[in-house]
Structure formats: structure tokens, C-alpha cells
Amino acid sequence: MSATDRISRLLFGFYMVAFFVYLFLPLAVMGAATFNTSRFPTVIPWQGTTLKWFTELWNDRAMWQALWTSVVVAFFVVLVAVPIGTAAALILTSLHERARGFLYAVMVSPLLTPGVVVGISTLVLWRQLEVGGGIFLIVLAQASFIICYVMLMVTARLQRFDRTQEEAALGLGASKLMVFRRIMLPFLKPALIAGAFLAVLQSIENYNTTLFVRGFDTPLTVFIATKVRTGLTPAVNALALIMIAMTIIGAIAFEIARRRQAARAAHA
Amino acid sequence: MAELYKRFGGGLSTILVALVGLWLIGMVLAPNIMMIDYALRPNLPPAQIGGPNDVYSLDNVLYLANEAVHRSIFFKTIWASALVAFVTFVLCYPLAFWLAQHATPGQTALALLALTIPFWINEVLRTLAWYILLAFRGPLNAVLLSIGIIDEPMRWYGNGGVLAGMVYAYILFMLFPIYNAIESLPKEQIEAGRDLGASTWRIHWRIVMPHAKAGIATGCVFTFMLAAGSYVAPALLGAPGSRWFTEIIYNWFFEGGDWNRGAAYALVLLVLCLFVVLVTLKLARVNLTDVAK
Predict the structure, then answer these.
(1) Phi and psi dihedrals of A36, rounded to 5?
(2) Which Pfam families does the record cross-reference, listed alphabetically (chain A) (predicted)?
């Protein structure tokens, strides 16, 4: 190995370490600060290890209210986004090539729209109808782009659908509705579950869109951001830590389910 | 449309079309049209709405063009978002290349898993992590002080803080498209380049980057758009001197009480983002169909 090779290896190793430190250090610091007695969340100086911030979080009524708001919103977003996203995917895959390209561009356009604009446009439309910000508008605004994610996931699965199954069922005398219920929906089930899961995550984590349509309701992300400005204590870190733990568990479960399904598909 | 009805029958097809119509017309098209309508009308007291003064004009957009502070914040947001995209690209490219070309399958799987974890965590929390790290009495200042790099604590909030937080938040939107694009490059092409005497720099510039152009364009477009439309990073990590265009828009709505002007500003932001997205994709010859993957 030449000297330049060794130097470039060393440099690359240094870069890799720096990259992963950059990626994880902020999260590690935020998590660790939860257990520090210090009133401002930090890790230096370490003033003593404590679990009191979890207790404080547990006793925070506003936090529970925010959590409830987020859960209600996520529930309704799934209720709206999964059927519509599925319908969009079904229509898309039933069309001819040219019409499909155009419709596809229209359908992914909400993903290319800045989040604040999605919120603002929803807000001004509903003011005309004298509906102000709140849970209802949060659901509509979030769903308008979360539908895209569901649509993409269902479309991906539909591309592997074997149309001869439909024809066989029709040939054997099944009605079109029956084919849809007994063949199409069971086939789509994994994608629908994955889509619902993604919708929940996207909904709970959304901030930029929600901020504009929230009215007087305060979902979790808004609650956290407000806390940062009005009085940040490690209780917020405790909340962050719990949310991170839940997200990681969810992500791993999602990943395992996806792999298992991929393995099954490879077998079949 | 005929194929749809043939496939699913009349009743079901009608439901599918109705659902999608509800979405595309009611939740996407109508809100945007109403936003344009708002943007083009003056802000009037309720009594005058529909009256002789309620006419369409470009006044709200022109107001942005003539108001020096807002204009400069607008342009700053554009170039700062481009800077975010560029820094993110520089940061991600070596890793993406290594993952796609050199790593063993085991290393790739492990690295991708490690990378996905912060990606699942939401933007507010990622920003909060930086808020804590960069605080005036926070860990970064404490460490730098103790090892003697600085003599007194630094104020990190401001342009630097916003840049750090945004790059951090959008890193994976850049990494994955580039990784996917480089992965499809046959190793032989790089070897051929090396055998013919090309330097490492030249191999990347002439072989890898042109091959990965679509991925790079996709990553940059997404990062730019997310940065330009972000509210949380500038709100938490910014300083009075580092205001973001989205914060001006927010103020028109919830502090200035002029929704029409706010809508006009939002419209300008939307048009800018769509313009940047479409031009970049056109230049890189990427199809919109490939973007959303």
C-alpha cells in the first residue's frame, strides 16, 4: 500500500467517524440531558442523575392534552388517507400509459409543495366557508399530502399484481365487487397496513403544515416547539426520549415485517 | 377511464373516482386556487369585501418586491436553501459512494439501519437536539471552553445554527437518492478509468457524478424545497438577524393580520419552489415519475 493510499484511507476513516458522530451526538446529548438534575437540559456540568423529569412530564396536563390531540388527528388522517390513497393507486394502475403519466404528476405534486403552503392554502379555503383552524383542518391539510405516500406504497404493490387472478375469478362467475373484496383487498393488505403506519408517523411528526391550521389546538410537535421558546426543561427531553424510543421500536417492527414479507415473496 | 370501469364495474369505479376527486379537487386544487385568489385581492375590512375596491391586482406581490427587508430575506432564503443543499451534498457524497461501491453487504445493511434511525425521528425533535447542543450555556460551548479552543461562550444560534440544523434534518433525503444512483454504476467503469490513468478526482467528476446525475438532482431538489419551506429550524435555531421567509409569511397570518399579503408571499414561495424543482429536473433529464421513489 502506498503512502498516498494510506493517507486517503485515514482521511476517509476520519470522515466516517465524524459523519456518524454528527448523526448521533445531538440525539445522544438530548437523551442524556433527560437524566441530569440541571434545570436547563444539558450534559455539562452534570449536576446529578435523576428521574424527576419523567415525573414532571407525567404530571403535565398540557402534554397529555397535546398527545390526545395528536392521536385523534393521526386516527382521522389514516381514516381519510388510506382509502383515498388506495383509490388513487387503483385508478392510476388501471389507466393507459399517457394518461397515467399526467395523473401521476398531479398526484405527487403535494409532495413537491412546501409544507407551509399546504397549511396556508387549506386555511384560506376554509375561512371562506367560515371554518377556522383546529383538528378538522389539521386532518385535511395533513391528509392532502400523506395520501401521496399511501398512493405510492399501494402502487408499488399493485405493480406486482397478477391480473390473470382477476380474470380467472371473473371467468368462474365472481362479480366485480367480489373480485375486489376477495382478491384485490387481501392482496393489498400488507401495503395498506404499511401505508396506515406511515400515515400515523407522518401525521404525528408534522409541524410545518400543522402550525398554520391548528387554530387553538396544540398537537405534540407544536407543544414541544412552544415549550422550547417559553420554558424548556428536561421534561421536554423526557418526552423526546420516549418518542424516539417508540419511533425506533416502530421502525424496527416495520423493517422486520417488510423483510419477512420480501422473503415470502422471494419464496413464492 | 373506460378501462377503469371495465375492470371494477360501475359502482365501485364511481366510488374510486369520487374519492380521488374529493382529494385532488377538494384538498389540493381548491385550496391552491383560493390561495391565489387571496393573494391577488387587497386586504379590506369586511364591509368593503365585494365592493368597488375589491379588485384583482398584483399589489401584494409587488409589495414584496418593493419592501427591502422582506425582499432581502426572500433572496437570503433562496441562497441559504441552495447552500443547505450544497453542503448536504458534499457531506453525503463520499459516504454514498463508499456504501454503493466499496462496502460489503453486511456493512451496507448496518450503515443503512444506523442512518434510518435519525430519519424516522421527527424534525422538531431533531431541531430540538441541535437547540440543546448549541445553547449558550450548552454542551458545545462547555466542551470548547474546557479544551481552550474559545475563551468565552459563542452564540451559535443564527445563520450557522440554522445551517447545521437543516443539513442535519435533511441529510437522508440527499443520501438515499445518491446511493441508489451510484449503486447501479458497474465497478468495471471505475476500474477502466483508473487503468487509463485518471485521477480519483477525475473518476468522480467524469464517471461517477454523470452516472449519478439523476440521484444528485433528486436529492438537491428535495433538500432545497424542504429547506426553503421549513419553519421549525429557523424559528428555534435562528436569531433576529437570521429570519427565514416562512417566518415572514407566518407573521402576516398570525401577527400582521394581513392574510392576503401572507397568501401572496406563500404563492411566491410555491412558484419559486416549483420553478427550481422543474428546472433542475429538466436540466438533469429526470422524469417526475422517478423522483418520488
Answers:
(1) -95, 140
(2) BPD_transp_1
pLDDT digits (tens, 9 = 90+) for A179-230: 888 889 999 998 999 899 889 988 998 999 999 999 999 999 999 999 888 8
Q: Which of A189-198, B1-10, B199-208, B253-262 has the lowest mean pLDDT?
A: B1-10
Specify if B207 maps to a domain: yes
Residue that has been written with the C-alpha cell 369505479 in this structure? B13
Work out the mean pLDDT of chain A and round it to a whole number: 88
**How far out from the chain centre does Cα B61 lie?**
23
Q: Is A15 helix (H, G, I), strand (E, B) or coil?
A: helix
The CATH number of residue B132's host domain is: 1.10.3720.10
- Cell digits of residue B101: 461501491
Question: What is the value of pTM for the model shown?
Answer: 0.87
User: Tens digit of pLDDT for each residue in B109-153?
Assistant: 888 878 877 777 788 888 999 998 888 888 888 888 888 888 888
Determine the Cα–Cα distance for residues A190 and A263; give it in Å rounded to an integer: 14
CB contacts of B247 in chain A (<8 Å) are none
Chain A residue nearest residue B36, CA to CA: A121
CB B96 within 8 A of CB B178: yes
CA distance B61 to B41: 10
Q: Please determine, for residue A51, whether its predicted confidence score (pLDDT) is greater than 70.
A: yes
**What is the b/e burial string over B192-226, where b = at least 16 CB atoms within 10 angstroms of the residue's CB?**
ebeeeebeeeebbeebbbebbebbbbbbbbbbbbb
Closest residue by Cα to residue B249 from B233, B238, B260, B237: B260
Q: Grid coordinates representing A69?
A: 390531540
SS (H, E, C) B176-197: HHHHHHHHCCCHHHHHHHHHCC
In angstroms, rounded to a whole number, what is the distance separating the alpha carbons of residues B156 and B136? 7
Instruction: Provide the shortest C-alpha distance from residue B186 to chain A (in Å).
Output: 22
Cβ-in-10-Å burial (0-12, 13-18, 19+) of A265 comes to: exposed
Residue B84 lies in a domain: yes
Is B20's CB within 8 Å of A212's CB?
Answer: no
Q: Which residues of A touch B272 (CB under 8 A)?
A: none
Specify the number of domains making up chain B: 1
Contact call for residues B238 and B163 (beta carbons, < 8 A)? no
Closest-CA residue of B relative to A125 is B31
- As a whole number of angstroms, the distance between CA A136 and CA A114 comes to 20
Question: What is the ipTM, given to two decimal places?
Answer: 0.86
Establish if A138 touches chain B: CB-CB under 8 angstroms: no
- In a domain? residue B3: no
Contact A177 B95 (CB under 8 A): no
Cell of B91: 457531506
User: Residue B164 falls within a domain, yes or no?
Assistant: yes
Q: Which of residues 177 through 236 in chain A touch B, CB cutoff 8 A?
A: 177, 180, 201, 204-208, 211-212, 221, 224-225, 228-229, 232, 236
Q: What is the mean pLDDT of chain B?
A: 87
**Whether A72 contacts chain B with CB within 8 A:** no
Neighbouring-strand partners of residue A36: A49
